[in-house]
């Protein structure tokens, strides 16, 4: 009997995220990501809505305007400094730096550019300002266990998605 994605189904899938403007791959997950469909989803709501009713073997394409999710880019969250003023462990594009605001709230910044002995860090979500396309391939569907429903997904470790999935 063919299984379909509905609430409380454990779904395994792989996906890639393409930048709609140039077709570049922004992120790709080849190790199956397991989640429980419905509440507590690890995926964007638009993606889970499009997955509803799909079955194993289906490929689903979901266009997303990231400004709707993360807001407009805030250029005040972008800083450039001489690379010599930055500790060595942060001197690579993609390095994550967690900082605190004056009120003690943590915020992740990422090294976005290194050029001419200058390093730029950016506190905007890496997808902010982009229009993307999620391309998902459904690998398996089954009833979720009570433990998986409570956890919202696999009770095993999930792959590191570099902060892409909310």
What does this protein look like?
With 166 residues, the protein is mainly β. It folds into two domains: 9-68 and 129-151, Chitinase A, domain 3, CATH 3.10.50; 74-122, Beta Barrel (Thrombin, subunit H). The protein has three helices and eight strands; from the N terminus they run E-E-H-E-H-E-E-E-E-E-H. Strand 1 and strand 2 (25-36) form a beta hairpin. The longest helix is centred in the first third of the chain and has 7 residues, at 45-51.
Record the SSE blueprint.
Blueprint: E1 9-19, E2 25-36, H1 45-51, E3 59-65, H2 66-70, E4 78-82, E5 96-100, E6 106-115, E7 118-122, E8 131-143, H3 146-151
Antiparallel strand pairs: 1-2, 1-8, 3-8, 4-7, 5-6, 6-7
Structure described in brief:
The chain is mostly beta strands and about 170 residues long. It has helices at about 45-50, 65-70, 145-150; strands at about 10-20, 25-35, 60-65, 80, 95-100, 105-115, 120, 130-145. It has two domains: about 10-70 and about 130-150, Roll (Chitinase A, domain 3); about 75-120, Thrombin, subunit H, CATH 2.40.10.
- Terminal Cα span: 33 Å
CATH fold naming of the largest domain: Chitinase A, domain 3
In spatial order, strands of the major sheet run 2-1-8-3
The number of helical segments is: 3
Could you describe the largest sheet, including whether it forms a barrel? 4 strands, antiparallel
Question: In percent terms, what proportion of residues is strand?
Answer: 35-45%
By DSSP, the count of extended strands is 8
The stretches of 5 or more residues where confidence is low (pLDDT under 50) are 157-162
Number of domains: 2
Question: Helix/strand/pairing class, anyone?
Answer: mainly beta
Whole-number average pLDDT?
Answer: 88
**Class of the largest domain in CATH?**
Alpha Beta
């Amino acid at each position: 009997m063919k299984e379909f994605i509905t609430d409380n189904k454990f779904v395994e899938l792989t996906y890639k995220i393409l930048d709609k403007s140039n077709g570049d791959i922004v992120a790709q997950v080849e190790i199956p990501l397991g989640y429980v469909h419905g509440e507590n989803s690890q995926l964007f709501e638009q993606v889970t809505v499009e997955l509803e009713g799909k079955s194993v073997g289906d490929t689903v394409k979901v266009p997303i305007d990231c400004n709707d999710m993360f807001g407009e880019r805030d250029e005040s969250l972008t800083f450039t400094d001489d690379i010599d003023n930055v500790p060595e462990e942060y001197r690579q594009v993609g390095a994550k730096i967690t900082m605190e605001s004056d009120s003690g709230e943590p915020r992740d910044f990422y090294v976005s550019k290194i050029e001419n002995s200058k390093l730029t860090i950016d506190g905007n979500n890496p997808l902010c300002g982009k229009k993307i396309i999620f391309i998902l391939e459904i690998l398996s569907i089954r009833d979720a266990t009570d433990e998986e429903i409570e956890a919202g997904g696999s009770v095993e470790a999930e792959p590191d998605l570099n902060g892409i999935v909310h």
